[in-house]
Design goal:
By secondary structure, this protein is mainly α. It contains 8 helices and 4 strands.
Length: about 200
């Protein structure tokens, strides 16, 4: 047991952070008092703290990456649990959004669409995901953009990394339109799949 110098309450040793210079190798203030002091300092010196942190990250990229990796591993369960809670809390909204997208997708399939090729694109994406690559089938011209609505056709689909598709969301960007013109992704898919249509 140890008495905190700030709140003068006797607490167990696990309530004190390690400090090489302190008595018993522990800090004089308990963890909760240290947090109060730290939060107060941050509120009073916010810009200074932010600049110091930015500079440290620039000077120590390896250490910063290691810290971020550790945080992701530690918080993986917390994030996963948060997503589950969200899905339970907003299940009706999520279902409604899925149904809306499905209806739009059905209406966006014209008669000239080649459903065999579309199915092959989705099968290939699934195969890549099974091999450990995290990919999505992206609509180059989005189905639900406020300015334009694309078709669910083979030449409007491409396989891209999931993070890129999530970042794009349903926006229409010139570079995505250019990829329709050069059609490289679709040509690559046809070469890789090596299967007759």
């Amino acid at each position: 047991m140890k008495i905190c110098s700030k709140c003068t309450i006797e607490k167990s040793l696990d309530q004190f952070a390690k400090d090489i210079k302190g008595k018993n190798g522990l800090r004089a203030y308990c963890r909760s008092c240290c947090k109060i002091v730290r939060d107060k300092y941050y509120r009073e010196n916010r810009d200074k703290v932010i600049n110091i942190n930015k500079q440290w990250k620039l000077n120590n990229p390896e250490k910063n990456n290691a810290i971020n990796r550790k945080k992701r591993v530690i918080n993986k369960v917390k994030v996963s649990l948060g997503r589950k809670v969200y899905r339970l809390k907003y299940a009706a909204k999520i279902y409604s959004d899925k149904q809306k997208r499905r209806a739009i997708k059905i209406n966006a399939i014209p008669k000239f669409a080649n459903k065999k090729i579309i199915d092959k694109i989705y099968e290939y994406a699934k195969q890549l995901n099974n091999e450990g690559l995290n990919v999505h089938v992206d609509h180059i011209v989005p189905l639900m953009n406020k300015n334009v609505s694309g078709f669910h056709v083979e030449w409007n689909l491409r396989i891209i990394p999931a993070k890129d598709n999530l970042a794009k969301n349903n926006t229409l960007i010139d570079t995505f339109i250019c990829s329709i013109l050069d059609d490289v992704n679709f040509q690559n898919f046809m070469l890789i799949s090596n299967s007759p249509l």
